[in-house]
Design a protein that fits this description.
Elements (H helix, E strand, L loop, with lengths): L1 H5 L5 H11 L12 H9 L6 E4 L2 E4 L8 H11 L18 E3 L6 E10 L4 E10 L13 E2 H15 L3 H48 L5 H23 L4 H12 L2 H7 L2 H11 E7 L2 E6 L1 H11 L17 H8 L7 H4 L3
Parallel strand pairs: 3-7
Antiparallel strand pairs: 1-2, 4-5, 5-6, 7-8
Helix pairs in contact: 5-9, 5-11, 6-7, 6-8, 9-10, 11-12
The structure holds zinc ion.
The site of zinc ion has 8 residues, from loops.
Length: 342
């Protein structure tokens, strides 16, 4: 469910339909999920690992289903203003672009043109600014779907990596991850020690309260402080290496992305666009993407290879190595020291 929502291409009623009809979801009473159940579920911090106890949020012991970042993204998606939602089967670029001049959504229109002389029918799809901005008098002109498609193909071409680079990058990530894991073990064991010290303090505190050496109020206050401390230590413990799956996902997505975009279904095309960038602006007929950092680096290195020269260089792919490091740096907590010399 979270994965569906995170794609950004489905709205709640669509996810609801998939969950109930395709997956056959039933709750304990045998009822399908309702719309409000689903809103409630997607809004609950439990899913990124938190639970509430006497009005305070604590980090739970359960394995979070999503990261806080993903959870925030879903909040933005489920609370986004109601853009007129046309089905994605019909319009490839709907909900994907914003007008750069007035920041309003770019929507799609389809026109069927009848050619009387040849009795031919042709369908044209246009995208245009909704011109809803009352202050700015926007003059952004409509653009055809095929022109937009060409531009998106160009954007993805810059992000695209070949098989050799993908293999090399994965090997590289693997080695870095192994190296990092060894260091993490040492850090983790000291954090675990601090956590178990807190557990001892908690149990001592309880004894003190039960033997009436301290008041209930004092107990609550001290216990709260210890739990907060424990929770922050536990976060340190879990934070370690989520860059590794993320970095692998980036190279899998970028590999052959142009060909995938051309061949795949409309839904999958939209998914590919969404995975490389969160914002796309239409500016005087030109698409200006705001790519996610690792995809930006891939693209930038192809456009400005000179910027990336002189960084770590493997034999076969001189211009690609620096990008790999940047992708691996998805997790800002690692590599800061190695980073300093370039
Ligand atoms: Zn506009």
């Amino acid at each position: 469910m979270w994965d569906l929502m995170l794609t950004g291409i489905y709205v709640i009623p669509q996810v609801l339909k998939i969950v109930n009809e395709n997956w056959g979801y039933k709750n304990r009473r045998g009822n399908p999920m309702t719309r409000s159940n689903m809103y409630e579920m997607f809004s609950h911090p439990f899913y990124y690992g938190y639970f509430q106890y006497s009005g305070i949020w604590y980090k739970g012991k359960h394995e979070p289903m999503v990261t806080k970042e993903e959870w925030d993204k879903v909040q933005a998606l489920i609370h986004r203003p109601n853009v007129p939602h046309l089905t994605s089967e019909e319009f490839l670029f709907i909900d994907l672009l914003k007008c750069d001049k007035c920041k309003f959504a770019i929507t799609g229109t389809r026109k069927i043109k009848n050619y009387k002389r040849t009795k031919r029918k042709a369908t044209y799809t246009y995208y245009h600014c909704t011109h809803k901005n009352k202050i700015i008098n926007c003059d952004e002109k409509p653009i055809t779907e095929s022109k937009l498609k060409d531009q998106f193909i160009k954007i993805l071409e810059y992000v695209d990596i070949d098989e050799d680079f993908k293999d090399w990058a994965k090997q590289y990530f693997h080695e870095l991850n192994e190296y990092e894991s060894k260091n993490v073990i040492d850090i983790n064991s000291s954090v675990k020690k601090s956590i178990s010290d807190i557990d001892i303090k908690l149990s001592t505190l309880l004894d003190l309260m039960l033997s009436q050496s301290i008041s209930k109020d004092e107990y609550d206050k001290k216990r709260h402080n210890l739990l907060v401390e424990k929770s922050s230590l536990e976060q340190k413990l879990n934070k370690s290496s989520d860059w590794f799956p993320k970095a692998n996902k980036v190279v899998d997505t970028a590999h052959d992305i142009k060909a995938k975009f051309i061949e795949k279904s409309i839904d999958e095309k939209r998914l590919l666009i969404r995975s490389v960038g969160s914002n796309f602006f239409l500016d005087s007929g030109l698409v200006r993407p705001e790519l996610e950092k690792p995809y930006f680096i891939l693209s930038d290195a192809k456009i400005n290879p000179e910027k990336y020269l002189g960084r770590l260089e493997p034999v076969d792919y001189p211009y690609l190595s620096a990008q790999t490091i940047e992708i691996a740096k998805l997790n800002p907590t690692w590599l800061p020291r190695e980073d300093s010399n370039f």
